C-alpha cells in the first residue's frame, strides 16, 4: 500500500505531537488533512511542520474529502463521539485519544456501530499498553513469575494541573490510564470502585479534591489501590507494584543519570507527561499505521476497552459523591471483541 493518508481532527497539544511523530519519526503515514474548531490552530500546526496538508472547516468535511484513508481524533473529549461515528459511517479506521466518549452510552453507541458492521475500525489511545515497562510487567505476570496476582498498589502523580481541572477529572482524565492498563495487565474485570479523599493539599485550588485514593476490586478478587495526586509538586510520577502469591514486581522508573552535587546524591525526575510516555506514543501510532496498512483495521485497544474504561470511571465518579462502594456492570462482551485480550497488545 502507498503511504497511509491521515486526517487529524483537533490540532491542540497531543494532536500536534502526533502530527510531529507521524511526519518526523514514524514510517508509512502522511498527514494530508487537518481540522480544528480554531482554524488558526490548524493552520499553525501545518505551518510549523512545513507539510502540505489541506485544512478543512470541520470533521465531517474532512472525513468525506476523499483525501484520507484513516483519521486521528485528538479534539476535546466531548467532541470525540461524533467524529468517531462519522469515521465509522464512512468506513475509515480511526485512532481516538481517550476518552472514546464522555459517557458510557456514547462509548456503547460506537461499539454498536462496529458490531453492526461486524468490523473493528477504532483504536483508543491507551498508550501505556505500548510502554516497555508495563509490557515487561505483563510478560512476567503472564509467565507466572510472581504467581497469582493478589494486590496492585499504584500512584499517578502530576506536578500540577491547570485551573480548569476539576475533581471528576482525577478519574476521567487521569486515573483512566490505570483503569485501562491494570485490567489488561492482569486479564481480569472490574467489579466495584470506591473513592476516598485524604487530607486535602493546600496546593490544590479550592474547588479541587486532591489527592484521592481509589480502590478497585476485580471479579477474581484482586484489590487495587491507586493514589491520584495532581498537585504533588515534585514531578510526573507513575508507580505500579503488583503483589503476587510468590513475589512482587514493580514498574521500572524512567532512568536518568545519577548525580552528586552540593552535598546531594540523586536522580532528576520528569516533570511533564509528554516525556514519560514519549516512546509509547511512538509505538502505539506506528502500530495503528502498520495494522491499518496491512489488515485495513487496527489491532490496539478496542472500542470495547474504551467502553470498559468509561463504565468504570462512571462508577468512580459516583463514589466520589456517595462515598460508597459502587458496582461496575459491563454487560455481555460482543463476539467481535472476544479473544482479543490475548491477541491485542
Ligand atoms: N493519551 C494521553 O496520554 C493523552 C495526553 C493528553 C491528552 N489526551 C487526550 O487528547 C485529547 C486532546 O487533549 P489536548 O491536551 O491536546 O487538548 P487541547 O485543548 O490542547 O487540544 C484540543 C484541540 O481540539 C480542538 N477542538 C475541540 N473541539 C473540536 C472539534 N469539534 N473539532 C475539531 N477540533 C476541535 C480545540 O480547538 C483544540 O485545539 C483529550 O481528549 C485528552 O484527554 C490524551
Ligand atoms: O491528559 C493528561 C494525560 O492523560 C496524562 O497522562 C495524565 O497524567 C494527566 O493527568 C492528564 O491530565
From TrEMBL:
<feature type="domain" description="Gfo/Idh/MocA-like oxidoreductase N-terminal">
    <location>
        <begin position="4"/>
        <end position="126"/>
    </location>
</feature>
<comment type="pathway">
    <text>Polyol metabolism; myo-inositol degradation into acetyl-CoA; acetyl-CoA from myo-inositol: step 1/7.</text>
</comment>
<dbReference type="InterPro" id="IPR023794">
    <property type="entry name" value="MI/DCI_dehydrogenase"/>
</dbReference>
<keyword id="KW-0520">NAD</keyword>
<dbReference type="InterPro" id="IPR036291">
    <property type="entry name" value="NAD(P)-bd_dom_sf"/>
</dbReference>
<protein>
    <recommendedName>
        <fullName>Inositol 2-dehydrogenase/D-chiro-inositol 3-dehydrogenase</fullName>
        <ecNumber>1.1.1.18</ecNumber>
        <ecNumber>1.1.1.369</ecNumber>
    </recommendedName>
</protein>
<dbReference type="Pfam" id="PF02894">
    <property type="entry name" value="GFO_IDH_MocA_C"/>
</dbReference>
<feature type="domain" description="Gfo/Idh/MocA-like oxidoreductase C-terminal">
    <location>
        <begin position="138"/>
        <end position="324"/>
    </location>
</feature>
<dbReference type="Pfam" id="PF01408">
    <property type="entry name" value="GFO_IDH_MocA"/>
</dbReference>
<dbReference type="GO" id="GO:0019310">
    <property type="term" value="P:inositol catabolic process"/>
</dbReference>
<keyword id="KW-0560">Oxidoreductase</keyword>
<dbReference type="InterPro" id="IPR004104">
    <property type="entry name" value="Gfo/Idh/MocA-like_OxRdtase_C"/>
</dbReference>
<dbReference type="GO" id="GO:0050112">
    <property type="term" value="F:inositol 2-dehydrogenase (NAD+) activity"/>
</dbReference>
<comment type="function">
    <text>Involved in the oxidation of myo-inositol (MI) and D-chiro-inositol (DCI) to 2-keto-myo-inositol (2KMI or 2-inosose) and 1-keto-D-chiro-inositol (1KDCI), respectively.</text>
</comment>
<comment type="subunit">
    <text>Homotetramer.</text>
</comment>
<comment type="similarity">
    <text>Belongs to the Gfo/Idh/MocA family.</text>
</comment>
<dbReference type="GO" id="GO:0000166">
    <property type="term" value="F:nucleotide binding"/>
</dbReference>
<dbReference type="InterPro" id="IPR050424">
    <property type="entry name" value="Gfo-Idh-MocA_inositol_DH"/>
</dbReference>
<dbReference type="InterPro" id="IPR000683">
    <property type="entry name" value="Gfo/Idh/MocA-like_OxRdtase_N"/>
</dbReference>
Amino acid at each position: 500500500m502507498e503511504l497511509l493518508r491521515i486526517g487529524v481532527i483537533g490540532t491542540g497539544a497531543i494532536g500536534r505531537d502526533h502530527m510531529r511523530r507521524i511526519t518526523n519519526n514514524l514510517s508509512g503515514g502522511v498527514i494530508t488533512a487537518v481540522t480544528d474548531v480554531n482554524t488558526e490552530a490548524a493552520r499553525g500546526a501545518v505551518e510549523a511542520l512545513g507539510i502540505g496538508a489541506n485544512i478543512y472547516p470541520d470533521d465531517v468535511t474532512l472525513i468525506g474529502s476523499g483525501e484520507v484513508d484513516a483519521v486521528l481524533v485528538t479534539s476535546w473529549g466531548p467532541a470525540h463521539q461524533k467524529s468517531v461515528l462519522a469515521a465509522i459511517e464512512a468506513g475509515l479506521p480511526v485512532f481516538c485519544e481517550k476518552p472514546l466518549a464522555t459517557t458510557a452510552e456514547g462509548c456503547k453507541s460506537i461499539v454498536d456501530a462496529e458490531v453492526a458492521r461486524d468490523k473493528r475500525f477504532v483504536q483508543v489511545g491507551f498508550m501505556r499498553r505500548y510502554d516497555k515497562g508495563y509490557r515487561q510487567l505483563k510478560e512476567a505476570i503472564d509467565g507466572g513469575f510472581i504467581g497469582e496476582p493478589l494486590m496492585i498498589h499504584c500512584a499517578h502523580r502530576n506536578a500540577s494541573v491547570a485551573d480548569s481541572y476539576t475533581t471528576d477529572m482525577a478519574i476521567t482524565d487521569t486515573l483512566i490510564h490505570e483503569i485501562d492498563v491494570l485490567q489488561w495487565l492482569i486479564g481480569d474485570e472490574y467489579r466495584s470502585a470506591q473513592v476516598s479523599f485524604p487530607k486535602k493539599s493546600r496546593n490544590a485550588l479550592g474547588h479541587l479534591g486532591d489527592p484521592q485514593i481509589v480502590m478497585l476490586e476485580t471479579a477474581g478478587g484482586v484489590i487495587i489501590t491507586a493514589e491520584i495526586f495532581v498537585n504533588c509538586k515534585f514531578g510526573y510520577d507513575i508507580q505500579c507494584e503488583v503483589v503476587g502469591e510468590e513475589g512482587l514486581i514493580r514498574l521500572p522508573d524512567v532512568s536518568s543519570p545519577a548525580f552528586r552535587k552540593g552535598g546531594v546524591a540523586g536522580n532528576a525526575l520528569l516533570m511533564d507527561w509528554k516525556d514519560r510516555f514519549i516512546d509509547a506514543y511512538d509505538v502505539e501510532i506506528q502500530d495503528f499505521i502498520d495494522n491499518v496498512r496491512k489488515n485495513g483495521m487496527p489491532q490496539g485497544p478496542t472500542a470495547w476497552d474504551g467502553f470498559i474504561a468509561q463504565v468504570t470511571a462512571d462508577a468512580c465518579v459516583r463514589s466520589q459523591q456517595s462515598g460508597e462502594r459502587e458496582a461496575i456492570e459491563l454487560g455481555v462482551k460482543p463476539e467481535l471483541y472476544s479473544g482479543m485480550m490475548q491477541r491485542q497488545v
